[in-house]
Automatic annotation (TrEMBL):
Keywords: ATP-binding, Cell membrane, Copper, Copper transport, Ion transport, Membrane, Metal-binding, Nucleotide-binding, Translocase, Transmembrane, Transmembrane helix, Transport. It comes from Pengzhenrongella frigida. One of its GO terms (biological process) is copper ion transport. Residues 128-227 form the P-type ATPase A domain. Coiled coil: none annotated. Pfam families: E1-E2_ATPase, Hydrolase. This is Cation-translocating P-type ATPase. GO terms for molecular function: ATP binding; ATP hydrolysis activity; ATPase-coupled monoatomic cation transmembrane transporter activity; cadmium ion transmembrane transporter activity; metal ion binding. It is a multi-pass membrane protein. CDD domains: P-type_ATPase_HM (cd02079).
Amino acid sequence: MRTLHTRLHTELHAGLHGRWGIPAVSGLLIAGSAAITGLAGAGVAGDTVMALAAVVAGTPIALHAVRALLARVIGIDLLVAVASIGAVVIGQYWEAAAVTFLFAVGHALEQATLSRTRSALAELVAVAPDVAVVLRDGGQVEVAAAAVAMGETVLVKNGAKVPVDGEVLAGTGAVDQASITGESIPVDKAVGDQVFAGTVSRGGLLQVRATGVGADTTLARIIHRVEEAQDAKARTQRFMDRFSAWYTPAIIVLAVVAGVLTGDVVLALTLLVIGCPGAMVISIPVSIVAGIGRAAKDGILIKGGEYLEKSAKITAVAVDKTGTLTRGRPRLTDVVVLGPDADRAAVLGWAALAEAGSEHPLARPVLDAARSEGLPTDRLPEVTESIPGKGITATSGGHRLLVGNLALLTQFGVADDRGSGQVAHDLAVAGRTPMIVAVDGVVVGVVAVADEVRPDAAQMVGELRRAGVRKVVMLTGDAMPVAVAVGEATGVDEVRAGLLPQDKLDVVRELQAAGYVVAMVGDGVNDAPALAVADLGVAMGAAGSAVALETADIALMADNLLKLPEAIRLARRTVANMHQNIAVALATVSLLLLGVLVGGVTMAAGMLVHEVSVLVVILNAMRLLRSRTQSHTPAAAGAPVAFVRNNARRATEPARR
């Protein structure tokens, strides 16, 4: 019995001190006043209880108004406080109680529904793991997730949350990554794969080496960024804040003037209540919170309201080819022998030796192919020099090695007397990236690599057009023939080939000068200048990149091209929602003010309509939280493409970059 009494007391205390406590007490007092009046007739007792109801509901409002005034802010609370105090002074106890009670109820409903719009953030926090099973001293030890040390080995069993960011050391399994990337299907994991804290094992047993713990995990960074983004103000919101700063004092002046001219104090007080810009103040932030929250649930991290608004205005998208339209994992496809004393092993071996000292992405497929064919890849050249836009030169054992394009041969005075230029051109036309190999001033052959076009690249281009994007441009440092093959496969509007990082920046500026609002999609490294100057920088596959999470305006957590048009569609829905909310708020206030001036709208009725309009605005914003089924109609590949030669010499030659 004592336990039950204690629990009831605790729940009652929580209820009275929660968001619904004050409205509940005020409502009971209003009901009590009505009962007293009904039983005993109008009198001091009923008026006293009604005035007490106004005091209970109005005290927090008055306190908020005072705090706002101390901060030099004239807000909604001040209007309601002045109106309710004035109503009590002139004996309008019912009006005072009704206004403060409705305002308190409206505030509680706002808090309840606003917390719903932040549900995505709450869900992200909820998936944060609490415990981890760590291998220590030859045994399994359960510790707090935050207590795992970097480099420790963590066991992830079927059904368990992954407690850290890490790399799979042993085992296989399927992991549900929806909380991070928005992917609905579990992803198979094996040795060498990356896993993220907060994801859930759906089968198998994984041993994971911790590479990120506590606040350094991808999940923690996402939570931090979503929280910041939902609080960040859009340009429209900043305008509405400035508007409200002038609007509220104007309503006070209007009420005073109306009261002086008519001598009707009730009219003046009613104007104060009716003129509350509550729906206007909340119309923008509630849409932004809901829109950014919906995006986060779908694996799209938008950095704030400003970028959400920009996303809705995008009319051109510039897309880097390698790693975006293509998989970014090129493989060796051809080894063409041109030297009379050379063979396949010799050409590939020389190319691998030169590339062993290179950091370029095309070095990896050459080295991998050489290793798979049993050629040595552990030797390093004494000297390696990268020639941007041309290739690489290396020195090893007294031999000078060149791997690159015709421009590289010309720079070092190597004659193309064995038709390597034509071979390279034919390979490039076939959609491959050729590299001519020369040893000690003599061409020995050509190697070529190819990067597979993503199967959803053409669909992404079509979805962008359906989302309202007028132009899609592919940017690449590759040769024009290679770029043409990818452009035709994906259906982009325009191809710019043979570009250096500075050239990509110039293309973005050119599009902006033509009146386009440009989004640049890239990997954040070679594309950094273009990403910086674009109206919107978009990073793909950001779940595995802390840099992308920090620097991109929009980060697509999954390596999924279709998330880009999805982000633009969501942004446009959100901005349309903001405009709808503003229209509702302005129409409500205008009609109420007209109703007061013409006659017929009372203080209590006006407050009721006002609070209903606030709820309409919030409920309208909450529609953004619903997931929409996206179109999956394949876009037609091979659409007309404009091919622009940004650098005539590089564009007509096989290029490394």
